[in-house]
Structure of DEAD/DEAH box helicase domain-containing protein:
Amino acid sequence: MTKRIAKGVYKPRRPWSSGPLLQEMRRLYQDPDMQWESKEQEQALVAMMMWQEQITAVLRTGGGKSVPFMLPCTLSEAGVTSLVVPLVVLRGDLFRRVRELRISHLEWVPEERRDASLVIVSVEATSEPRVQEYARRLVDDQRLDRVV
């Protein structure tokens, strides 16, 4: 899906380093003592926010895999993060967690026109021409920050 929509010129975005991202994570979770779950979690988020094009992160269960896609959605200059998940996950606790953190989100459906900081797309929908049109519109408007 990414290759089919990744066309156009992107506006430069401010890079983030580890320290400011940790402060933002503490703010988001309202925990002034919060630390990175692992060095890998920190590296994944910093790489993402340094605007590296392709990142692969392998984290253990409970290793904080959600932070690298949720935290950027809460930053002041946040664009749209498109999160591709198996349909089963949509029924899980993902929506509960993003609601608790007050992250602007929506589940993409074929007639969707709205935007949110986090757009959750089922893996089954990624082959739909309308989801690709939606993503292309975000790219054209320079609003799509990442596809996870």
Notes: The first helix runs from residue 2 to 5. Strands lie at 80-85, 105-107, 118-122, 144-147. Confidence is low (pLDDT under 50) at residues 1-5. The chain has one domain: 2-147.
